[in-house]
Design brief:
Blueprint lengths: L2 H20 L12 H11 L7 E6 L6 H12 L5 E5 L2 H5 L4 H14 L9 H6 L5 E8 L2 H7 L11 E6 L2 H6 L3 E4 L9 H10 L3 H6 L2 H5 L8 H12 L3 H14 L4 H10 L4 H10 L4 E2 L5 E2 L2 H12 L16 E5 L6 E3 L12 E5 L11 E3 L17
Parallel strand pairs: 1-4, 1-5, 2-3, 3-4, 8-10, 9-11
Antiparallel strand pairs: 6-7
GO molecular function, one term: ADP binding
Pfam family, one: WHD_ROQ1
InterPro entries: Disease_R_plants (IPR044974), NB-ARC (IPR002182), P-loop_NTPase (IPR027417), WH_DNA-bd_sf (IPR036390), WHD_ROQ1-like (IPR058192)
Length: 385
């Protein structure tokens, strides 16, 4: 080539790189309070150190995993020879040929070649001579990563990978360090506190709430947009995992894990593995006191799913279908039991009496008719809290 052509190519290449580094970002939705998180993850990535390093951002839907990953990508991508942010891997992989398109996009962006062939190993080997940054956003299973990348062995020791996922098992399978994104810092304004109390660190919840007009509704309804995002993790569960999730949401929040595990074992749910799946999603948590915890929004999700089992509340779960009963004794005057009380509930497996408030009285509100069938019943057998 002539000297003038070479100079022109060099200038165009430099201008393109400068544009990538200094391209103005969209500031109409400026992020607040993420700087410390971005800096922490940046330090964990160890951009200046050597060794292919992958880091995962793990948590439930709507808490800002993608937002944080994008902020980091925008900040450090200019330090790499090639970079790619693959958004919505979960959604794209559900489309026929979606993973192939994502692989094409991945290689095209990293190699800056629109005509690259995604199935030729030679193209992946070319990455072995480059310093690249890759973000895989919303990965749900290990097979997606295998289809897109195959192995980290293609990459140089100075390359970096970021994964966002709802499922911690994905990170384990790819031996990725997990950065658990719990919640952002919040202010102490009264209105903000009220809304944040409901949102529980889920930015998506804040995004769909209309502040003052929404305050009166916060305790009554789960916004459809929030429900849709949270339900993604629920829908990915197996049937018995869904049953355990709903039971925890309706009955076992705050209960010690040991008796709950015994209950699920008696129900044939084999809970040891299934509970760990729910923890990994993460839809529940086991605190240091071995008690089961669930976010209020997820508990509302469980209640909403149960309510939608029947459009007509009056027909919801007829006696033949009732499996669980949980009664707040502070809201009833008295309950009278007789021999036919539970005969129409053959599937009943859980019965709990409790009191949500204590007014100083210690009166048992459960009585039973004098009947031969109840002769051996002792009221102190009931778990009245």
């Amino acid at each position: 080539k002539r000297e003038s052509e070479l100079i022109n190519e060099v200038v165009n290449h430099i201008l393109k790189r400068l544009d990538e580094v200094f391209r103005p970002r969209d500031n109409k939705n400026q992020l607040v309070g993420v700087e410390s998180t971005v800096e922490e993850i940046e330090s964990l990535l160890g951009v200046e150190s050597k060794g292919v390093y992958a880091l995962g951002i793990w948590g439930i839907g709507g808490i800002g995993k993608t937002t944080i990953a994008r902020a980091i990508f925008d900040k450090i991508s200019g330090d790499f020879d090639g970079s790619c942010f693959l958004e919505n891997v979960r959604e794209e992989s559900q489309i026929p040929g979606g993973l192939s398109c994502l692989r094409q996009k991945l290689l095209s962006n990293l190699l800056k070649d629109k005509n690259v062939m995604p199935y030729i190993d030679l193209n992946f080997r070319r990455l072995g001579h480059m310093k690249v940054l890759i973000v895989f956003d919303d990965v749900t299973c290990f097979s997606q990563l295998e289809s897109l990348m195959g192995s980290l062995d293609w990459l140089t020791p100075v390359s970096r990978i970021i994964l966002t996922t709802r499922n911690k098992q994905v990170l384990r399978n790819w031996r990725v360090n997990a950065f658990k994104r719990n919640h952002p810092d919040v202010g102490n304004e009264k209105l903000s506190s009220n809304v944040m109390k409901y949102a529980q660190g889920v930015p998506l919840a804040l995004k769909v709430l209309v502040w003052e007009s929404a305050i009166s509704k916060l305790q009554r309804i789960l916004h459809p947009s929030i429900l849709e995002v949270l339900k993604i993790s629920y829908d990915s569960l197996e049937d018995k995992e869904k049953n355990i999730f709903l039971d925890v949401a309706c009955f076992f929040q705050g209960e010690h894990v040991d008796p709950v595990m015994k209950f699920f074992n008696a129900s044939g749910f084999y809970p040891e593995i299934r509970i760990s799946v729910l923890v990994d999603k993460p839809l529940i948590a086991i605190c240091s006191y071995k008690k089961i915890r669930m976010r209020d929004l997820l508990q509302e999700l469980g209640g909403e799913i149960v309510r939608k089992e029947s459009i007509n509340p009056g027909n919801r779960k007829q006696g033949q279908k009732i499996e669980d009963i949980c009664l707040d004794m502070s809201k009833v005057i008295e309950i009278c039991l007789n021999t036919s009380t539970f005969t129409k509930m053959p599937k009943l497996r859980f019965l709990k009496f409790y009191s949500s408030s204590f007014n100083g009285e210690n009166k048992c509100k459960i009585s039973y008719l004098q009947d031969p069938g109840f002769a051996g019943v002792k009221l102190n057998n009931f778990g009245i809290e």
